[in-house]
Design a protein that fits this description.
six-stranded parallel sheet, 287 residues, binds adenosine monophosphate, alpha/beta, three-stranded antiparallel sheet
């Protein structure tokens, strides 16, 4: 496994990599969720490039950029074991050269949910992912369903800007008790870690109601709220039952839907989601 930081070194490595190339974009502090994407790429592609870059432009002014967890040494050893070929850790000045002023702005699908709560977040995400695609020129790129809206935004961007890359989405990896893995889980105290189970519990409860025939979107949102109300440490930011493509809130789930939640547990903001599959398929297990 080679580790590069300059664009020149990336290009040299890239030329020699057998194709197809799979790209896994990350912000580091890797866990099994990230590694599941790397393993999928290793399985499907001749070469796997992983990028590690904490992208400042997707953080709001009051968010956790400064304290975002980092551990490059550990990340590199995990990636070596997972079978990555090249790790690209660009300097900030490569991704945002002095005078930077060119952005990718995906419109409607970024106005809701995470986009509404975190203004500018998806402009930062789309721009950095576009730049990673341009630099690595992968045939496939791997993203986690954990960030469901991110997947919608990236798919839209790829279509609209004719990026020649196939987007592969991998399922959410969870702890055995149901908590979705996230680099931010490290912020949770022991008590908060227990309280954080309320996210997967709320989604699972609504998923079960859906499976039992309740397809009224407001009912499903209410069921989730009721679960959150049992947890004093949880402060709900949004509870959504939306169309999985447009992310518009639904009145009734006729076909598929995306249940998603954003919740503060203490001062840590967590997100989670559950796809309600179309028609007869069963709901994926939330925990
Ligand atoms: P991040 O480092 O947070 O930017 O995440 C990098 C990639 O890993 C994104 O595509 C995430 O959706 C994905 N990811 C993060 N957590 C999980 C998880 N628990 N399961 C699956 N994928 C994940």
């Amino acid at each position: 496994m080679r580790v590069v930081s300059s664009l020149k070194d990336l290009n040299l490595e890239r030329e020699n990599l057998p194709k197809p190339i799979g790209l896994v974009p990350t912000m580091g502090f890797l866990h099994e969720g990230h590694l599941s994407l790397v393993r999928e790429s290793v399985k499907q592609c001749a070469s796997t490039v992983v990028s590690i870059f904490i992208n400042p432009t997707q953080f709001g002014p009051k968010e956790d950029l400064a304290k975002y967890p980092r551990d490059l040494k550990r990340d590199l050893s995990l990636l070596e074991n997972a079978g990555a070929d090249v790790v690209w850790c660009p300097e900030e000045a490569i991704m945002y050269p002095p005078g930077f002023q060119t952005w990718i702005n995906v419109e409607e699908v970024t106005n809701k949910l995470e986009g509404a709560m975190r203004p500018g977040h998806f402009r930062g995400v789309a721009t950095i992912v576009g730049k990673l695609f341009n630099a690595v020129l992968p045939q496939k790129a791997y993203f986690g369903q954990k960030d469901a809206q991110q997947v919608v935004v990236i798919r839209r961007m790829v279509k609209d800007l004719n990026f020649q890359v196939e987007i592969i989405v991998c399922p959410i990896v969870r702890e055995t008790d149901g908590l979705a893995l996230s680099s931010r889980n490290i912020y949770l105290s022991t008590e908060e870690r227990k309280a954080a189970l309320v996210l997967s519990k709320a989604l699972k409860t609504a998923g079960a109601a859906y499976n039992n025939g309740d397809h009224d979107a407001e009912n499903l949102r209410r069921i989730m709220l009721k679960v959150f109300n049992t947890e004093p440490l949880a402060k709900v930011q949004y509870i959504s039952c939306a169309d999985p493509d447009t992310l518009d809130e639904l009145i009734h789930v006729d076909s598929c839907a995306l249940l998603s939640v954003a919740v503060y547990i203490g001062s840590t903001r967590l997100i989670d989601n559950l796809s309600l599959p179309c028609s007869d398929d069963r709901v994926e297990k939330a925990a």
